[in-house]
Amino acid sequence: MMRCIAVDDEKLVLDLLVDNIRQVPYLTLVKTARNAMEAIEILQNESIDLVFLDIQMPRLTGLQFLKTLPDPPLVILVTAYEKYALEGFELNVVDYLLKPVSMERFLKACNRAHELFQLKKPKLLPIDPDVKITDFFVHVEYSLVKVEIEKVAWVEGLKDYVKIYLTTATKPIITRMTIKSLEEKLPEPAFIRIHKSYLVAVDKITAIKRDVVEIGTNEIPVSESYKENLRKILHIG
């Protein structure tokens, strides 16, 4: 699943863009932004894989915004102006869409982004598809500790540290790494992000409530921006 945002200062265009995004099964719309400053705030607080970005916006254009990002996600430019295409591709954007955008052309750009997204993801499976990675090691104080993936129930991110809660231990493993780095070690769709600070093992979920999932007696919060992701994974209507 690719987590994306849409950035455009024109409400009608933004609404059409949102409608298109929601028709693509592998996209999850996290939020929308009406300008670059709102987009910056989202990127600082959310894990985003793809940005649909307008160019002509007040204060900071889409291209200026893109140049400020030290490690930008994948970007598809959506604009009414053909003249920025060369500069856009020099910034390694995935595609350059001219408004109005047909669904066919939009889907073609999304498919290209999805292919690049899959290529960028760490290869969790070895060449032999019958052999699965079942564990990994993390640093704990001065040791490397093995974590068996099937025993991971959920993960809590705390800035530069994570707590890994296992089904076989009362206390979590605490190690220095970001939740995004750990997310890349865990296989999809067995593990899903339900909050900017929480990952859960899907098969360990015992109940789902309005804003939490339960794993046994533990309640794990679900943020609004990840609810759609949860619904798609669990096939909740």
TrEMBL record:
The modification 4-aspartylphosphate is found at residue 54. Keywords: DNA-binding, Phosphoprotein. InterPro entries: CheY-like_superfamily, LytTR_DNA-bd_dom, Sig_transdc_resp-reg_receiver, WalR-like. SMART domains: LytTR, REC. Pfam families: LytTR, Response_reg. One of its GO terms (cellular component) is protein-DNA complex. Residues 143-236 form the HTH LytTR-type domain. The keyword Nucleotidyltransferase does not apply. Residues 3-114 form the Response regulatory domain. PROSITE patterns: HTH_LYTTR, RESPONSE_REGULATORY. The keyword DNA-binding applies. GO terms for biological process: regulation of DNA-templated transcription. GO terms for molecular function: phosphorelay response regulator activity; transcription cis-regulatory region binding. This is LytTR family DNA-binding domain-containing protein.
